[in-house]
Amino acid sequence: MHRIEFFRYSPADYWGVRVDGTDLRLTVADATRSLREREADAMAAEPGGRMTAQERTDFLARRHGGMRQEDLGAPAAYFLGEHEPAFRCGTEDGTPVLGCSCGVWECGPLLARITVTADTVIWSRFRDPYRPAWGELPIGPYVFPRAAYETALAHPFRLAHDPLPA
Question: What burial letters (b/e) apply to 100-118, b meaning 16+ CB within 10 Å?
Answer without folding.
Answer: bbeeebeebbbbbbbeeee
